[in-house]
Amino acid sequence: MDHLCVLLIVVGVALPCHGMNPPRLPTLPPQFSLHQEVIDISGKRLVASTEIFDYHAKLARTDLVPPPKSDLERRFGARPVTIIGDFNTGYRYVIDRWQRNCTMGPLTVQSWAVQTGPGTYVTMRHSYDLFDQVATSAAYQYKGQTQIRNLTVDQWTKSSNSGAEEKVFILAHDWTSVSEESQGPATDIPVGLSINHYESGVLAFQQMYHIYDFYKGHPERTAFDIKDCFSFNNEYKTLMFMLEGSYYYNVYGKHEQVYTAVTNAIAVHAKVSAIRVTDVQIYQTIPLYLDIVFTLRDRPPKLDNVKSESVEPSLTEAYENLDAAVDEGFTITVPYKNGTKDLKVLLSSLWERQKWYSKSGPSQLKKYTPGAMAGLGIGMLLLGSVLGVGAAAFIHKRMNTEVPYKVTE
């Protein structure tokens, strides 16, 4: 046992734990998704939603139907919406999932993932802060085990001076968790959260969160897709660079890991939000090389009421940032269950995709290393062979290399 604790449960009520080393409240992973039911017991209202959180990318998403008489319903109606918060820029995108229109505005403090930063800026809560919804510096106290939805859970509580009390419920470790992604002993799986507010010792507000399908890991590839919002600005660049090396066994059947690593690496070196890197595709047309094709979007238009510490670079600036990084060379680290693999970017291999198909051919490319020249020479020979065979094989190859993904750390 990792703690010493004597607990007595009487009629489903847990008595306090008085062990010498009570366990600490687990922290949530930096990337996760879940389904939840928020039960407003005082208001007799139930709201179901899906939440996706990615602290590494500084992005969060909520899917729900706006509750009746809420500000969200007054602004967007009662149709299902997706709300994506980009904490890199301070923008919020609300997408009507029926009509596919998009409304762009500033992130607000009402978002569950928002905390107020220095000055008037808003910043993203770290995953270990998400449980703290009562705004108090008091530490969580372990209160033993109890039952929720017939599940045995460990519980922690904390209270504020204003009368708020919060309880967090984590599935007991001696339970087994089975899902589409994994199965095995339950490890730090939240199943519930409750918030009570007392006024003069009388319960005035009571809210319960039931958590289902908690998944640890990177969100799906399309989780933060805001293509419906890009009508505000159609400026973009379709770009391509190459990875140098034999990565067949690192990529084949593992596209999910590679896609997220490539997307994040592009965003980091272009110094943009990952939300601006879209349509990532991976091809192999030359032996010992991989082609990475993607779209780099322009930044959103400036809004005066957006409060963010950082300013996104323009499309030209982002391209120049990425171009300089590719010229210097960098590696893309792909996480797997049993370790990591570094994929080497071919020096000076970045170009705009339309140049490849221009009449002047590869002479439009700005510069090459000897290795790049050799690779392109082989590529021209192979391309001639492929064209000789016909377009059907070309299309078939690409259709079989594009695989939707979900990433786990």
| N-end to C-end Cα span | 27 Å
Assembly type of the shown chains?
Answer: single chain
| Architecture per CATH nomenclature, i.e. the level-2 architecture of the largest domain | Clam
CATH class of the largest domain: Mainly Beta
Strand order of the largest sheet: 8-7-6-5-4-3-17-16-13-12-11
Shape: globular
* Total of DSSP H or I helical runs spanning 4+ residues: 7
Please tell me how large the radius of gyration is: 25 Å
CATH topology of the largest domain: outer membrane lipoprotein receptor (LolB), chain A
Count of individual beta strands: 23
Mean pLDDT over the full residue set: 76
The low-confidence runs, each spanning 5 or more residues with pLDDT under 50, are 1-16, 355-409
The proportion of residues in beta strands is 35-45%
Number of domains: 2
Biggest sheet: strands, sense, closure?
11 strands, antiparallel
Q: Helix share of residues?
A: 10-25%
SSE pattern: EEEEEHEEEEEEEEEEEEEHHEEHEEEHHH
Counting helices, strands and paired strands, the structural category is: alpha+beta
Structure in words:
The protein is of the alpha+beta class. It has 2 domains: 27-216, outer membrane lipoprotein receptor (LolB), chain A; 233-399. Helices cover 18% and strands 37% of the residues. The protein contains 7 helices and 23 strands. The protein has helices at residues 71-76, 248-251, 255-270, 315-328, 353-356, 370-389, 391-399, and strands spanning 9-10, 13-14, 31-40, 45-54, 59-64, 81-86, 91-96, 102-106, 114-116, 122-124, 141-148, 151-159, 164-171, 176-178, 183-185, 190-199, 202-216, 236-244, 277-286, 289-297, 331-336, 339-344, 351-352. An 11-stranded antiparallel β-sheet has the order 8-7-6-5-4-3-17-16-13-12-11, with no helix packed on it. Strand 3 and strand 4 form a beta hairpin. The longest helix is centred in the last third of the chain and has 20 residues, at 370-389. The chain is globular, with a radius of gyration of 25 Å. The two termini are 27 Å apart.
